[in-house]
Amino acid sequence: MFNPNQRARMLKKKLMRDNRYLLAKIGGAGQDPGERKVLTDYFRYKDYTDGSEWLKASEKEKWSDKFLGLGKDGFKKTEFQNPTYSAAYNLRRNLAEFSKVFTMQVAGCNYSCNYCFVPRKLNSADERYGRFFSAKEIVEEFLRIKKDSKEPMNVIRISGGECMIIPEIIIGVYNEIMKRSEDSYLWIDTNLSAIEIMEKEKNELEKVLSQKNVGVVGCFKGTTKEDFSLITGAEEKFYKNQFEATKFLIDLGTDFYAYIPAYIYEEKMAEEKLESFLFKLQKISRNLPLKLEVLKAEDFPAAKINFELAKKEGRTIPKTHQGYIFDLWHNKLLPKYYSEEELKKFCCEIRL
Question: Where does 4-349 sit in CATH, by number?
Answer without folding.
Answer: 3.20.20.70
